[in-house]
Design a protein that fits this description.
This protein has about 210 residues and is mainly α. It is built from 11 helices and no strands. The protein folds into 2 domains: about 5-75, Arc Repressor Mutant, subunit A, CATH 1.10.10.60; about 80-210, Tetracycline Repressor, domain 2.
């Protein structure tokens, strides 16, 4: 992810402020991924970003808010808001496949898996951290997809009684066996051909379940 993209998605400000904010977020993402939440200090983030600790706190009041912002930016870079804009004139299958590919790329990335393992490992000691991650990443993504589904239902392209449940099913199907194996550190990563087959099969199953009757 490049810094301009991060700055663009994380709020307005003067160019120099945006550059510093982007540098802080980039440092935070790297350190949270490699050192974990507890192992990452605001001092370390400031040092890697090349700014003062006071500057870090002026942009993000505390480490929890910085963590939340970092997770949001990772999600937005891989799955930008426009990916969920329903193109009611285009084929819905193509839209679903685009969302599926972006989501699968995100959740199976090394950075995402590292953060996921950190959250799981600290679930009992730091339950609030898991809640912050859930709200900044998975929940926001699922809510955006639910909005997409409601628009497609209104246009008569899908027939979904419970968009929340359908969104949950879609993302769980996409994770599948591959994500579980990566989480446990076993098995081999899928080839691109296998990934394509998995994504297409998932989208086809979803379409068969919710196509208008």
């Amino acid at each position: 992810m490049n810094s301009p993209a991060i700055a663009k998605t994380c709020g307005p400000g003067r160019p120099k402020d945006l550059e510093k904010r982007a540098a802080i977020l980039d440092a935070a993402k790297r350190l949270f991924t490699t050192q974990g939440f507890d192992g990452t200090s605001m001092d370390a983030i400031a040092a890697v970003a090349g700014v003062s600790k006071l500057t870090v706190y002026s942009h993000f009041q505390d480490k929890e808010r910085l963590f939340t912002a970092a997770v949001e930016c990772v999600c937005q870079d891989t799955m930008p808001p426009e990916i969920f804009a329903a193109d009611l004139k285009g084929p819905i299958r193509r839209q679903l496949l685009t969302i599926a590919r972006a989501f699968f790329t995100l959740v199976t990335s090394d950075a995402a898996m590292a953060v996921h393992r950190t959250i799981v490992a600290n679930a009992q000691q730091s339950p609030k951290l898991g809640q912050l991650f859930w709200e900044a990443g998975p929940k926001r993504t699922q809510e955006a997809f639910e909005t997409f589904l409601r628009e497609e239902v209104a246009a008569g392209k899908l027939e979904v009684a419970d968009t929340h449940r359908a969104a949950m099913q879609f993302f769980c199907l996409l994770k599948g066996e591959c994500h579980a194996q990566l989480e446990f550190g076993c098995g081999e990563p899928l080839s691109q051909r296998e990934v394509d087959a998995h994504l297409n099969a998932t989208v086809d199953m979803f379409m068969r379940a919710y196509a208008p009757r």
